[in-house]
Design a protein that fits this description.
CATH topology of the largest domain: Glycoprotein, Type 4 Pilin
Number of helices: 5
Order of helices and strands: HHEEHEEHEEHEEE
Strand content: 15-25%
Largest sheet: 5 strands, antiparallel
Number of domains: 2
Helix content: 25-40%
CATH architecture of the largest domain: 2-Layer Sandwich
Strand order of the largest sheet: 2-1-3-8-9
């Protein structure tokens, strides 16, 4: 289980530098780098994780790619090796990132706790059980499933409340925006430890969220 002490700033620095090196090597050579021994030996536990690419000085939404694994099914080093490339070239919402564009992109890493079903008797109970700035959400109904990370309601000047967060998560899953009110829809929560570059190839920091 991920908690506040599971990963140090040094860990975050290693993983984000690994992700950037992997992306830029792939864009130059069309193949991934070999995983360094220190990364492979240090990050062997299974975790879900996402890599998010944000373009600095973008006029509107700065998101440039975001791909990850929800469930802790693979060693963290393997997840980063995979999803760093996927975030750059496989996010269906965007064209592939270019090598030149990486000069304008900051990398964010989210390491996830395993998702937990939020048990409620009535949908309005979600409003008291979900905390903006702490929880990420997954909406699931039948074969449809969508995830939004804990930082989404806050980043880029957003000030979402819990209802808005639930609605956007349902839409991400391909459901109606009020599907969270339906008994057939399951809502899961998870938390994340976040690290990010302050500027492209610049200082890497631990990112803390706060609710509005």
């Amino acid at each position: 289980m991920t908690d506040e002490n599971s990963f140090t700033l040094e860990d975050g620095i290693l993983l984000i530098r690994f992700a950037r090196e992997n992306i830029e090597f792939f864009l130059r050579n069309d193949r991934r780098i070999s995983i360094p021994d220190d990364i492979k030996s240090k990050f062997t536990e299974n975790y879900g994780a996402f890599i998010t690419l944000n373009k600095v000085n973008a006029p509107s939404n700065s998101l440039r790619g975001c791909i990850g694994y929800i469930e802790p099914s693979f060693p963290l080093y393997d997840v980063i090796h995979r999803v760093s490339i996927s975030s750059a070239i496989e996010d269906p919402r965007f064209p592939s990132v270019s090598l030149e564009e990486m000069n304008e992109i900051v990398i964010e890493l989210s390491i996830l706790t395993p998702p937990k079903l939020i048990n409620v008797n009535r949908p309005k109970e979600y409003l008291d059980k979900i905390v903006i700035g702490r929880d990420g959400l997954i909406a699931e109904k039948g074969m449809r499933r969508g995830l939004l990370l804990p930082q989404v309601p806050i980043d880029h000047g957003r000030k979402w409340d819990v209802k808005t967060f639930l609605s956007h998560t349902c839409v991400k899953a391909g459901l109606s925006n009020d599907a969270w009110k339906e008994n057939e829809t399951k809502i899961f929560s998870f938390q994340a430890i976040l690290f990010e570059e302050k500027e492209p190839r610049g200082e890497i920091i631990r990112k803390y969220l706060s609710s509005h």
